[in-house]
Design a protein that fits this description.
This protein is mainly alpha-helical and 305 residues long. It has a domain of 137 residues: Alpha Horseshoe (Leucine-rich Repeat Variant). It is built from 18 helices and no strands. Helix 13 runs antiparallel to helix 14 and helix 17 runs antiparallel to helix 18.
Length: 305
């Protein structure tokens, strides 16, 4: 599998005219009884889809159908590589993603729902590939699946595997771009995710923190609170260090002024993190509750709520 990428790049560059015959001869091995043959061929096709040469040689539909057909393969690695190939179309033939958007999105959703994936490697590949495809799909194609995807990826935000946390949170941020048509429904998903995203700004893994910053910046415009949106844009830039306590104090002010009824939801979500395996997140949860509650009490006392 590791040799597929350099081999494909070399063949795409130097063996273009021979590729149709090579692809034709390899397709039967996708049905081989030997896992190793199916894995190697799927890896080769997946990397080949990273190049526009498959589009130039009118191979795209054939190879895309081959990758789609591997989604129920008994071998988990084959299923994962097939999704990688479908995601690579965003790089190799981005103009074709729009045409085949519904089919590609359905494949990614199926991958996230893979039931025989104990380590969630297929789901991880599906989320990563979906993020790549989103720049090129029609809004109407993704909007019909938006809620299902948001609900499906939510448990991964707290996965013990940092790659799953990073990929799912980044994907959630990307999904917010498509929420306009069904704003009320997706707004609920943003509110449900908000506490988790704010707490994971204290995640021990920098790549997860980076994903949280991105997701919160993307969520900001949908929050209906200009002050909160500006805070996310200004304080959560990738290169900027964050004074977490001061930041959360200001976040709580905006949240309790705009959504005082959110306090119960905020408390119940934070309580879940009192037993978090991550020390900094475990410490951030009670601080979050304390600051939100005290600010709301002050606002009520002053008659601002």
């Amino acid at each position: 599998v590791t040799g597929a990428a350099p081999l494909c790049r070399a063949m795409a560059r130097h063996a273009g005219p021979r590729l149709p015959l090579i692809v034709k001869n390899l397709i039967p091995t996708l049905s081989s009884v030997f896992d190793s043959q199916r894995i190697t061929t799927t890896a080769f096709f997946a990397e080949l889809l990273n190049s526009n040469v498959v589009n130039d040689l009118i191979l795209l539909e054939t190879m895309m159908d081959s990758m789609t057909g591997r989604q129920k393969d008994p071998c988990m690695l084959v299923r994962m590589l097939a999704l990688r190939g479908l995601g690579n179309i965003a790089s190799g033939s981005p103009d074709k993603v729009r045409k085949h958007g519904a089919k590609l999105l359905a494949s990614m959703v199926n991958g996230m729902d893979d039931k025989d994936d104990p380590h969630n490697l297929v789901a991880l590949e599906a989320m990563s590939s979906l993020s790549k495809l989103l720049d090129h799909v029609e809004d109407r194609d993704i909007q019909s699946m938006l809620l299902h995807i948001a609900i499906r990826i939510r448990p991964f935000f707290d996965s013990e595997q940092p790659e799953l946390r990073q990929s799912s949170i980044a994907l959630f941020g990307n999904l917010t771009r498509f929420s306009d048509g069904d704003c009320e429904v997706f707004f609920e998903q943003i509110l449900n995710a908000l506490v988790t995203l704010l707490l994971h700004l204290q995640d021990p893994k920098p790549e997860v923190v980076k994903a949280c910053k991105f997701a919160l910046r993307m969520c900001g415009p949908s929050m209906g609170c200009e002050g909160l949106c500006e805070m996310f844009l200004n304080h959560l830039r990738e290169e900027r260090s964050l004074h977490y306590g001061e930041f959360m104090n200001n976040v709580c002010k905006h949240l309790m002024q705009k959504y005082p009824e959110m306090l119960n939801r905020l408390i119940s979500t934070n309580l879940f993190y009192f037993k978090s395996s991550w020390v900094d997140i475990r410490a951030a949860a009670p601080m979050f509750i304390g600051r939100a509650a005290s600010i709301l009490l002050l606002l009520l006392h002053l008659g601002h709520c």
